[in-house]
Amino acid sequence: MSVSADPHAAATVVVGAAAATSAAVNASAGTGPVPVVRVWRPEGALEVEATIGVLRFGAGDPAYRRTRDGAYWRCSRTPRGPGTLRITVRDRAAEIEAAAWGPGADWLLGQLPALLGAEDDPAAFDPRAHPLLRDLHRHHPGLRIGRTGLVMESLVPAVLGQRVTVGEAHESWRQLLLRYGAPAPGPAPAGMRIAPAARDWVRIPSWDWHRAGVDGQRSGTVVRAARLAARLEQASAMPPDQAFARLTTVPGIGVWTAAETLQRSNGDPDAVTVGDLHLPNTVGWALAGRERSDDAVMLELLEPYRGHRYRVCRLLRTTNVRAPRHAPRYAPIDFRDR
């Protein structure tokens, strides 16, 4: 890995306190408590919480933690193996220090700028026609659309979120990672776990899916996706249309799930979530003052911002703007009794 070729900013890689060559980085990663460290200086404003907070799947996500010292911890299963990443913000995000442990450490550090939105280009986004969007864009100049480069990491939580409440999906993810995930490498906070490998998702018995509150339809989709994991991971490097087509070839993965995945794995600023229960009403209320909207109305209102429709939704979620709710609350279903 040669981080000096990074076109977005100056960066260094060190092991302990000494500068390291690529060979030293690869040799040292995962061999002990000494991390591989990268210092990266982003160009322009960067709001780290607003950028990577969408990767946390619930407050109890075992793969994501923010500690009292302000550091962000993530553990991932990379193409080179499991790794733990700690991100520390310096000087109001003018400088980012990242430390990584495990076989996937060098991969995670190489991916750091993309994770923090260095590949995102909001220059073509023009919200001046709408006062609310104009103000939100001005107040959040550092909100970036980051790219993890990891498909299964975001696909499985998206599948778990199909047709259930957010809280139900978060709890299912937490239970599955605690039971079947691997310990995070390095000095990660207690309880952090790396999501199962594709072969391990396939091996989860039906009773443990049910114990985690996941019905057979969703668990079947995860298993089918896991069996095709190598092909699905290729979508992270594909253009949006091709990536969307690759994911939706799997039975059980529709437009909602594909969009939720590609927003994170590919950093797609236009992957608007169609089929969401509340998003159309939020967009309709915020952009047009409509109390009730459907997907067709939402897409019509977002059309002037094509290419950045997901960015608009992210900006709207930084506010407390919510359409009045008229429908009865959804009653969670306990699949463990079925």
TrEMBL record:
InterPro entries: Alkylbase_DNA_Glycosylase/TA, DNA_glycosylase. The keyword DNA repair applies. Keywords: DNA damage, DNA repair. This is DNA-3-methyladenine glycosylase.
